[in-house]
């Protein structure tokens, strides 16, 4: 394995960490409702709008990841086979199906977290077959658990507080 595949570029790392902040902030906003009753009235309306924004942002990031996978397939010029193309289309179909059912907030954040996990596993397989640089998988190994835990935390607060 070559060194350029192992070393993680700083710009993608910084952008990825910044990209996770909306999930963390949303979770913290929801978690504040559990700690102090004075915040509930103030944050209730804000959380309604930020919940929609977090869902949309989550969908957009998954579409971006599917685009990365599609780009890997296109860049390979046929050497990766149709599997990567099918994987990219599968991701997009799952995202569009979730968007159609996104009005069921009681489960949607859990489903989004599961889909992030599925895509993470797919990227693991792609990186193990050397279809992408290994630093990309290391980057995903850092950020995906943060996003999944944040989404599941938001889901838990929604379930127990009934936002």
Rough outline: globular
Mean pLDDT: 75
Describe the largest sheet: none
Number of beta-strand segments: 0
Q: Compute the gyration radius: what is it?
A: 17 Å
Distance between the termini: 49 Å
Distinctive features:
163 residues; mainly alpha; globular
Provide a descriptive summary of the structure in words:
The protein has 163 residues and is mainly alpha-helical. It has one domain. 86% of the residues lie in helices and 0% in strands. It has 6 helices and no strands. Helix 4 (82-100) runs antiparallel to helix 5 (105-128). The protein is globular and about 50 Å long.
Please give the structural blueprint:
Blueprint (H helix, E strand, L loop, with lengths): L2 H4 L3 H26 L1 H39 L6 H19 L4 H24 L5 H28 L2
Could you provide a short overview of the structure?
The protein is mostly helical.
């Amino acid at each position: 394995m070559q060194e350029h595949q192992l070393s993680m570029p700083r710009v993608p790392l910084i952008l990825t960490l910044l990209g996770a902040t909306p999930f963390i902030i949303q979770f913290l906003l929801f978690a504040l409702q559990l700690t102090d009753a004075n915040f509930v009235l103030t944050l209730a309306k804000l959380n309604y709008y930020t919940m929609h924004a977090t869902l949309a942002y989550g969908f957009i990031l998954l579409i971006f990841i599917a685009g990365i996978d599609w780009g890997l397939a296109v860049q390979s010029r046929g050497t990766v086979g149709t599997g990567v193309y099918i994987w990219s289309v599968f991701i997009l179909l799952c995202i569009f199906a979730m968007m159609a059912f996104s009005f069921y907030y009681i489960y949607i954040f859990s489903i989004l977290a599961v889909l992030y996990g599925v895509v993470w596993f797919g990227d693991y397989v792609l990186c193990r077959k050397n279809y992408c640089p290994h630093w990309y998988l290391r980057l995903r190994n850092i950020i995906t658990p943060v996003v999944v835990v944040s989404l599941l935390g938001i889901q838990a607060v929604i379930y127990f507080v009934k936002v």
